[in-house]
Give the backbone structure.
Amino acid sequence: MEEKKEEELKEELKVEKKSKEQIELEETTDRLKRVMAEFENYKKRSSKERDILYNSLVADIVSKFLPVVDNLEKAVENKCKDENFKQGIELILKQIKEIFKNLGVEEIETVGKTFDPEVHEAVSSVVDENLGEKEIKEEFRKGYKIGLKVIRHAMVVVAN
């Protein structure tokens, strides 16, 4: 009888030891899952911050070139006696706009669109029965954006 009790005690100790090991394993597994989730969140947050920083840097650099683009557009609009010279200016302007496109920079749509204070700057308003409420009639200066970040607001004339 004493041997049975001794064996039962040994058996209980084994079960108790297994349950302690099982508890440790579950705790370790839980910690591992938490660390993995934290790391995934860190990667997502880091990627988002990197994208924001990239867009901000591109916007700063592009904003320095916008007066040059404005002047090239004015040069293309003007009459020129030398057609080859005008074509050269058009080619330069086209190349700069292609670079902007490759960087993710887009022109803000204006004429015929509804005025949006997030991307447009109203410099004047007119009454025009042919246009709808807050419809943009004319563009004074092009606006540009990269993603959701506005590099430069478009200067527009708003109707009604």
Notes: The first strand starts at residue 105 and ends at 107.
